[in-house]
Every structure is written in structure tokens, then in C-alpha cells.
Amino acid sequence: MDAAAFPRGRWRARWIWCEAPSIRSEPGAPLTRIASGESVTACFRRSFDLDAVPTRVAARASADSRYALWVNGREVMRGPIRANGRRLHYDAFDLAPFLRRGRNAIAVLVRHFGRANPWWAPLPPTLELGAGGFVFEARLADDHWLVSDAAWRTLRADAWTSLVKASVGALPVERFDARALAAEWRETGFDDATWSPARALAGNHLGFTGRHEPPLLPYGAMRPRPIAPLGCVRRDGTVVRVARAPAAAPGDDPIARAMEDFAASRPVAAATHAWPLRLDTGPDAVSVVSVDFGEVVAGTVVLDVDAPAGTVLDVAAAEFASEEGVLAPDDERSGFRYVARGADDRFETFQPLGFRWLGLSVRADGPVVLRDVSVHERLYPRDPDAGPFFECSDATLNRIHAVGRRSVDLNSQDAYLDCPTREQRAWTGDSVVHQMVDFATHPDWRLACWNPELAASPRADGMLPMAAGGDIEHQDASFIPDWALHWVRAVHNVWRWTGDRERVARLLPVVEGVLRWFEDFAAEDGLASDVTGWVIIDWSSVSVDGKSSVLNALWARGLRDFAEMAEWLGDAGRAQWARARHARLREAFELFWDPERALYVDHAIGSERRRPVSQHALATPLAAGLVPDERVARVIEVLLDESRHVHATWSRAKADARQPGPGERGVGGPYLVLGPPAPWWDVERQIVVAQPFFAYVLHDALAEHGRADRIPAQCRRWAALLERCATSWSETWYGGTVSHGWGSTPTRDLVVRTLGITPAEPGFTRARIAPRLGDL
Fold this sequence. Notes:
Layout: E1 16-17, E2 23-26, E3 29-35, E4 40-50, E5 58-64, E6 66-71, E7 74-79, E8 89-94, E9 102-112, E10 133-141, E11 144-147, E12 153-156, E13 160-163, E14 173-177, E15 196-197, E16 199-200, E17 223-224, E18 233-236, E19 238-246, H1 254-264, E20 266-267, E21 277-279, E22 285-306, E23 312-318, E24 334-339, E25 346-348, E26 353-363, E27 368-377, H2 395-410, E28 426-427, H3 431-441, H4 446-455, E29 467-468, H5 471-475, H6 481-498, H7 501-517, E30 547-548, H8 549-568, H9 572-588, E31 593-594, E32 599-600, E33 603-605, E34 608-609, H10 615-623, H11 629-639, E35 645-646, H12 669-674, E36 687-688, H13 695-704, H14 711-715, H15 719-722, H16 745-754, E37 757-759, E38 767-769
Parallel strand pairs: 8-17, 14-24, 35-36
Antiparallel strand pairs: 1-16, 2-3, 4-9, 4-12, 5-8, 5-10, 6-7, 6-9, 10-11, 12-15, 13-14, 18-27, 19-20, 19-22, 21-27, 22-25, 22-26, 22-27, 23-24, 23-26, 28-29, 30-33, 31-32, 33-34, 37-38
């Protein structure tokens, strides 16, 4: 939809809602308003007649918090995309393909989440805005607009309720009772006479101008959606296991109920494993069904079932199950509940889920026919036939390249996600790998450019949130300083690949704020010391106490990136500052050089160099231009010496047999809040290996110094991950979820480093093609 359809300025529409928003004044603070935090779902309808269908009907819509819109029963759009709510976006689309002569109907489902979740956070409300709402306008003809106002019909849809779980990795759990909502409410002929008129919300606030149409507080001047609408591709599952369990009360948590039924279930002899699936249920037994989608998928789940009214289907979604189809009991998962209406029982979840396996627990007072279970995969669109393509003489590398593309695609939704199966958060640092893969392999760069803007939401001190557009940014309980420095690299990538001067100029002040944040932690020698927040570096066991060599090197790389961009924009003063600061760090970085072992160590306390060494401490200064030329060959030699490598982690993931040392070393939670345990490996000789995420810096270091020929061999390490999951990448070398885009560095590097295709000047005004094939 072109910008001419909706020029900047005031909307014609009003925000509408299903009821008076639950907003009150803060006692003792008359200017402060508080929303109830209640989750509310609303249905809206608007019917209208057309003598003829126009060739084009420009429309746009937005919501607080999320909406799905249908015209004459056909889905048109879902949105808006995640962002800080003060930068709310709208979706623009053409209604004409969905319209017909005569009667037409628009139906909209809107959910206000109430409480912050991984992809949305509340704003301080005004008198009526900030506690749920929907806004829409469409130009049916030159002088005929259809807008959201009191003429719309609405119903508070209490058929939906949600369950908020306490775990950091848990998604809100959707529960839907179909008996409370007519199946045909989205169709043209539905009679909505019993519904109420929509409430047109008032825009009053301190300094109100007298107009109730947007732009209004608290949402600001809403912006057009900067990325493509997500795709919708059907994925079918296969029934693997049918079992029965003793009947038990449903309870509040459908995931817990489904897993308890799984644990108590026994396979049904001679059960058929095909759609439609006939289940013999009754008051004394529960049917339990396992559905396998063959690989991790991400989208909305669709159920098609014939069942008596009141039948309860509890669904648990997971990445792992046994060969017999028994879901892993300790797998972090999402899920939902559906209660059947007894007719027309076809349901699609409002919220997207990620999983490979679905476990369904079905309790009913009679036979049930499960006609089908499928997924509408809703990912950022990629035409599989459009290329670009990659193929080399090593079949394993071809496979690794393809799995990396799929892993990034699974995490490409309205932002780059950490994983679709657990959190669905837009972590600020993770996304740099997703972005680089898309620049190298995706024809559409809009998401790669938008994601750094999403995360450009600095605190008052200049530091970025750990994750953007959701609960973590909203709560601001902690932050990851090094993730902000990976974000600086993402901005640098936008500069190099697109040459978008306006975008880079817009982001550069935020980059500067991040880099200057570290100045307050600079010791007398200029190195950042005792940096607060969660300095994670990687899931590997990298020592960061005191002065971290890796963190300081990432800071130096960020300064160099900033200097290049500032110089390109003609800002010589800021470029000079950044280069001078980089030079000071280069000089002070000698503290980390161990002349006896001829390598860089992880950290120092004051002026005392400590003993642990990691690939991170060797690769990052190489990538940041901190290593004197005469040392480069030695540092690369040590970096790649596999005889000295050790897999060691203080992360949440479990270890496998490749990790030396007694027992399990994935201590997780205690490390995050109490500090790491002492190293259990030989710190004098062994070097801690970088996890898949940080490998991008390692590979950059090799390329920086003309050793890209070593990268194909490095990429072959990913073959070990194929043994755990053949279709998407694990979070670490030995555990975590198996749907992490941040592990896809080989997919970038086989194009950018091995084929050697890179921008020689910003925006590819000149290209550099310098293959370094190694042994290929």
C-alpha cells in the first residue's frame, strides 16, 4: 500500500472498544492513570453494501494489543507488529480482493493482553486510551470512508481467557470455550443485532486539543508497518501415538493437565494412526494423542473436531518426544485449551506457537472424531524458488547451509526471535546473526533493517534493553551490555549492505549513546572495569570479573564501526573521538596479553592478569583490530588448536560426553544470580570453545586477517548438531532448544566468506567477489 493512500496527518477514525476501559486515577497523583491489567478479548463487526467493487480499497488498522481481521469470512491481516507502544504501527492493505457486490462484513478479533508479555507491554493510559482498543479506516470511494466508530457492533468475548505462567521462558496460555461464541460470527450473514454498539473512545488527556482521532496519547503518531505481512503456509501433522489415561479433572493449566494425562496413559491396542481419528472417550477415560510435524514449526494451530458440547481438548506443545511419541516431561513448552461447542468445531489459536510435537488430551462424554490437526505457519515470507541459492562440493555443508536458513526463518516473525518454542522474545543481541543470514540469503531486507530500529529504544543512560518490544524492556529489571554492542554491529551491517543514509543517521545517536555508556566504567588505563548488568558474552564459561578482555574488545569493535559510519555521514568530529578512544583501548589491551603462553586471557582484576582463556578472548581482539601484526599468526594458531579445546558452560543447558569434568556442569539459575563456580578445566592449557552464537565473531576474526580459507572447516563443526536435530539448530553445542536462529553463522559465511561476496562500498555501489574456498 503506497504512502499516498494515507498521507501523514490526522486519521478520520476513532479508537473503539467493547466497553468502558478499566482505568482509574492513582490515589494522591491526579495526573497518573492506571489500567486494571485485565486481559480482555473483543469481537467487532461492521456491515455495509456496495453497488460495485472498486478496483482498489486502501485500508489501515491497528490495535492495543493485537488483532486479526476478516472480510466476508476471509482472513485479511493480523497485527500490529511488536514495538515500544509509544511507536505504535498500523497495517495498510487493500480490501478490494475480499469485497463483493451487495452485502459485505468486516469482522475483527482484538485482544488486549493487560499484562506485559514477550511481545507486548502496556503504556501509561490516558482517560480512556491505553487499556484496549481498535482503529480502522478504509477509502471505499473518493468521498466515502468507512471508519471505526460507534456504528460498529461489538461483543466482549469472554470465550477467551488466558493463563499467565511464572517462568521466564513461558508464553501466555490461551483458553477458548467455543460454547460462548457463535462459529459464524465472522461471516457476512451473521446477525449481530444482539451485540452492543462499539464505544468510541475519548482522546482526552492533559493538553488535549479537542480532536478524538489519532494521533493521540499514549500511542504517538502511528507509523506504517515497515516489514511485509507474515506468510500463512499450511503444515500437516502425523498421528504417532494413541493412548488412554484415567479420567481426571481438567484444572486451570491445560499444559500441566495434558502432561499428567500423558504420564498416566497407556497405548490403545490396534489403534489407527490416520485422519480422521476416532477416539472412544467417556466419563472414566481420557484419550491421549501425539502428533508429529516432522520438524519444528511455528504458527497458529488449527483443530478440526466433531465432539459433544463441553469436550475439553488440552494441548501441550514441545520440541522433543520419544520414538513412541511420548512428550519429554522436562521440555519447556507452550499449549492451549479448546472446549467444544458441539457443532462447527473448527478452531485456530490466536497466538502463534512453536513446536515439533503436539500432545492432545481429550476428555468427553462420548465418541470424538479428530478430523485434523494442522498449523498455519506464520513466518516472514521467503519464496523458496526465488533464491539466492548455495551449493558446493561438500554435501554436508550444503545441508548445514539449508538448516541455517530454516532456523532463521523459524525465528523471523514480526521481529527476529530467540526461539519460537520457548520465549518468542526479540533479544537485542541474538538477532545480529539472523540479520546477517538474511542480508546474505534473503531477497527481502526489510526485516533485517527494521530489527535494529526495533531495539533502538535506549534507557535514559543510553543502554539498550535486553529484549525489545515486550516485557523485558517494560520491566527494565536488567540488561546485557555486550548485547548492545552486538546491536551496534547490526547497525554497521545495515550501513554496509544498504547504504541507507537516512536510516543510519537516525540510528547513529543511539549507537553513540551505547558506546559512551561504557565510559563511566573506564578505569585509569581506559579499560572498562566492573561493568554492571549481566555480562553474558556467551553460554560458554568465559570469565568476566573485573576487566573483561572480550567486553573491552567488543567495545573497541563498536567504536571502530561507529567511526566508519560517522565519517561516511560527514561527522568528522565524532569519528575522531571514536578512533582516539579505540587507540586508547588498543594500547591498554596489552594488560590481557600473557607473554609466557603467548595468548590473550579472559580477564584481569585491577592490574593482575588472570589465567582462564577462551576462544572469545582470542577472536574478539582479532576482529576488533587490537592485535599487533606480529602476533596475529600465533593468536590464530592457538584459537584453532583443537587439542586444547574444552567445552565448558555455566549455562542452563545440559552437557554431553564431550564436556570433561565430573558430573553435570549446566548449573543455570544459580550462576545467573549468585555468580559462576570456579573453573573445573585446566586453565593453564585448555581453551574454552565458543558456542554457535559467538562463532560469528570467531569467523569474522579469521576473515579480518585473510584466513577465510579456514572457515569451511570451522563450519563443518555444525554437523554434530545435526545428530540432535536434523532440521534446525540447537541453542548450544550440547543442549537447549533446537530452534535457534543465532546458531546459523555458517549460512552467512558460506556465502560471505567462502564465496566471498560482500559490499565493497556501502549499499553495494561496488561489490567485492573474492572466493576463499579452502578445501572445497
